[in-house]
Write the structure tokens for this entry.
Amino acid sequence: MAEFIKSWTIKDCLFLIYQAWNDVSAETLRNAWGKLIDRDMPRKNSCQDSTLEACNLLNKLPKKRSSL
């Protein structure tokens, strides 16, 4: 085992890291980052919800009468 470790180079280590990173799926990254981002950022739908809420408020404003 010691001989094996002595024969390893930086290049071998970097290749191992490269292979490990390629084994991480996009779904795993989304799930991991999603948990962190959800703490600080609003969800995508919150923008749509805010827009809908603003439109509803605007629709409740009295209509301006035409001067014609």
